[in-house]
Amino acid sequence: MAETYTIGVSGFAAAATKTAVSIVANASLRAKLIKIILGQTSAPASTDASSEWQLRRITSDGAGTATSATPAQADPLGPAATITGRINYTVEPTYATGFLLPIAINQRATFSYSVVTEGEKYMTDLTTSHGLGLQCISAPASSTWDVVLVYEQ
Predict the structure, then answer these.
(1) H or E element, residue 110
(2) CA 133 to the chain's CA centroid
C-alpha cells in the first residue's frame, strides 16, 4: 500500500524561473504526485495580476541549491519518507526541456490540482537526483506564495 506525504513552503518569495518546492526520488523508489496546491499569501498588487507556474521534470537535483525539507506523513503511524523534499531554491536544478503541467493563476485565486485516475499521476523515475519541481515562471512583484505538493511513495 502506498504511503502519502506532503512537502511545502510557506511565504515563498516568487520570482521568474525560481523553484519553490520539489520531490526528489532515489534509485529504488518512485514518487507519484497526487496533488498541487498554491496560492498567493501577500497583499494583491494594485492592478489585477496573474502568475505562471510549471510542473517540470528534474534531471539533476545535484546542480541545484535549496533547503532540505522533511515531508509530513499523512499517517502518523506510517513509515518515514524515503523520498526527499527541497524548498526555496537559490540555484536551480537541471530540468528536462519543456514542462509537464502549465499553471496560470490570478493572484486572487488558489490553484488546486488533484488526480482522479491512476493515469493522471506524474511520476519520478528510478534515478537518484531525478524528480519533479514546481517552478515559478512569472509572478507579481514582491508576491509571496504557499506551495504544497502531495505525493505517494
Answers:
(1) strand 110-114
(2) 5
Taking the C-alpha atoms of residue 24 and residue 82, their distance in angstroms, rounded to an integer, is 10
Q: Residues 62, 26: contact at Cβ < 8 Å? A: no
Task: State the pTM of this model.
Answer: 0.92
Closest listed residue to residue 83, CA positions, set 50, 143, 124: 124
In a 13 Å sphere around the CA of 33, the CA atoms on its Cβ side amount to: 29
On whether the CB atoms of residues 103 and 33 are closer than 8 A, the answer is no
Structural domains in the chain, sorted by start: 4-152 (2.60.120)
pLDDT of residue 1: 63
Alpha-carbon distance of 127 to 112, in angstroms, equals 28
